[in-house]
Amino acid sequence: MIIVDTGASSTSGDENVAEPNELVTGGHRLPSQLDLTAARKLQDEIRSRLASGAVVLDAGAVDRLSTPCVQVLLAAGRAAASADVSFRIANASGAFSAAVVELGLETQFRNWMV
After folding, report:
1. Which residue has the higher pLDDT, 14 or 95?
2. Which residues, other chains included, contact 78 with Cβ-Cβ below 8 Å and sequence gap of 6+?
3. 3-class SS at 16?
4. SS3 breakdown of the chain: % helix, strand, coil, rounded to 5?
5. pLDDT at 12 over 70
6. 64-108 per-position pLDDT tens digit
7. What b-and-e string marks burial along 30-52, b requiring 16 or more CB atoms within 10 Å of the CB?
8. Number of domains in the chain
9. Which residues span the domain enclosing 32?
10. What is the pLDDT of residues 16-71, one digit of tens each?
C-alpha cells in the first residue's frame, strides 16, 4: 500500500474525517485524510452520487491518500465513463497528485483531473 502524507495537517484524531455528505458533492472538498478507514465511506458516497449524475470532487485539501482510496477513485472514474456520466477531480493537492504518480496512474487520471 502506498500512502502519501505531506505532514501539512495540523489537526489530529477525528477532526480530519468528513461527515458523510461532505465526502462527495459538487464543489465540496474531499477530506484531508483519504486512507483505509475512509475508503468504504468514499466508495458509498461516490456510488450514490454517480447514480444521481455528474460528480465533481475537490481534492485540494487532501494531504494523505492511500492506495485503497486511489482504487475507489479509479473504479468510480471508469464506472462514470461506462455510464456516460461526468466525473471530475478538481484542485488536486500535491499529495493527491504524488500518489497518482507513485502508482503510475497518471494516464488513467489525466482525463478526470481538472
Report:
1. 95
2. none
3. helix
4. 50, 15, 35
5. no
6. 999 999 999 999 999 999 999 999 999 999 999 999 999 999 999
7. bbbbbbeebbebbbebbeebbee
8. 1
9. 23-110
10. 333 433 444 455 689 999 999 999 999 999 998 888 888 999 999 999 999 999 99
Strands 55-58 and 64-66: unpaired
Straight-line distance from the first to the last Cα atom of the chain, in angstroms, rounded to the nearest whole number = 26
Convert 79-114 to b/e letters by CB count within 10 Å (16 or more is b): ebeeeebebbbeebbebbbbbbeebeeeeebeebbe
On whether the CB atoms of residues 66 and 35 are closer than 8 A, the answer is yes
* Grid cell digits, residue 28: 465540496
- Residues 103 and 70: beta-carbon distance below 8 Å: yes
Q: Is 39 within the bounds of a domain?
A: yes
Residues 5 and 63 sit within 8 Å (Cβ to Cβ): yes
| Residue 30 CB contacts under 8 Å (≥ 6 apart), including other chains | 18, 23, 24, 42, 57, 58, 59, 61, 62
- Here the CATH number for the domain that contains residue 66 is 3.30.750.24
The cell 464543489 sits on which residue?
27
